Amino acid sequence: MVQTLTEFDTIAAISTPIGEGGISIVRLSGEAAVPIVNQIFKGKNLTKVPSHTINYGHIIDPETKQVIDEVMVSVMRAPKTFTREDIVEINCHGGIVVTNRILQLLLGHGARMADAGEFTKRAFMNGRIDLTQAESVMDIVRAKTDKAREVAEKQLEGGLLTKIQAMRQEILDTLANVEVNIDYPEYDADTITAKQMAGVSKSVIAKIERLLTTASEGTALRNGLATAIIGQPNVGKSSLLNYLTKSDKAIVTDVAGTTRDTLEEYVSVKGVPLKLIDTAGIRQTDNKVEKIGVERSKKALDQADLVLLLLDASHDLTPADQELIAATANKKRIIILNKTDLGQQLNKEELETTTASEVIATSILQEQNLTQLEDAIKQLFFNGIENSNDEVLVTNQRQVGLLQKAKKQLEDVIIAVNDEVPVDIVQIDLNGAWDTLGEITGESSPDELVNELFSQFCLGK
Ligand code: GDP
To answer: What is the CATH number of domain 224-382?
Structure first.
């Protein structure tokens, strides 16, 4: 990877959210981090203090001698730091004015404003973490539930990295053998080599497939499982929504950069983050019949990974109900037979058989069986994966795409071997798969990709 000089200048950014808070942290990384801060710090001489110490003092404007803030300054010298460079963190009083003033002073004394994600990027560039770990840093910051955070932490520890490296090693060992066999072509060497290449391809494909089975759960944990609550007017959709979004369950996030003034509503159901679709539609109470018809439900359906279909247990199925049942047949879904307190016309078991879906009978009004509903959602989501807690999950589309590409390349190896294609040509595909797997960890990633990836980070991270 080409490294330009600017990547090693000293960068600074405010690492805590901008706004009022108890404290804020301004962070620097780079060779000049300590001397730069030392110029505007009154207290001990920071260039002399031991590494990994925190030091009391004041930030002053050296020109006016004005005291800006009372601070604690952490000095952490390379290489045992997050970026493997010298890092200084200034803990100052929270508040936009003070924090910005300190940042400005740093920029005036030789630091450069950090780009989004640049601290983490440096950790990657300096070989401290790989790309999957860098991505997990972002995931930890954005994690919507405890479970999502846990998975991201596991990835930060190098869970996925270890798996990918093992696969690459397997391929590399075979490639080395191929070289030997090509150099010393003996009788039958080609056949043996071809067999080895097909063998390693099969073995790695199986491992890739195993990882890919975790992808939908991993991605949903990261992004939230897009969930549509659908059903006829008055069946209890907004009551369910209210139940799910009340107090501690709701996580409401702004959608940055959208022109519409929308909020994405997330709820955590036993650790599963649900991203609720079209809640505005459900909440609109005026002119219900017209607005929340079958058409609107179908629209929500298109985007949904999970469907919660509500039916009125106290009435027979209407043609519109039948239509919704048919429209959701190939979705992950849970059918909710609501209003059981009004008497039950619909038979749960019968419905389970005809729809081949989990059916939960509830009274949302009386909060009956809602825990069962939550359990069912969790069960459906984790597909038993949660039981093996050390499972590494693939958590994003970039990783999924590359795994699929590597798998395809390995399949091509097997086809070529079967077609008795010359080994030095088969070797090219095997080499390709090795490269593709390397892109996941960043060992063979193009610069543009790396830049794009880090630009998605927030400032100061
Ligand atoms: P939506 O049109 O599907 O969003 O339905 P709402 O949630 O607005 O509910 C319509 C009416 O049904 C409201 O008066 C609710 O209080 C009532 N309701 C919701 N769930 C139940 C239930 O389990 N039992 C009974 N008896 N009424 C319910």
So the answer is: 3.40.50.300
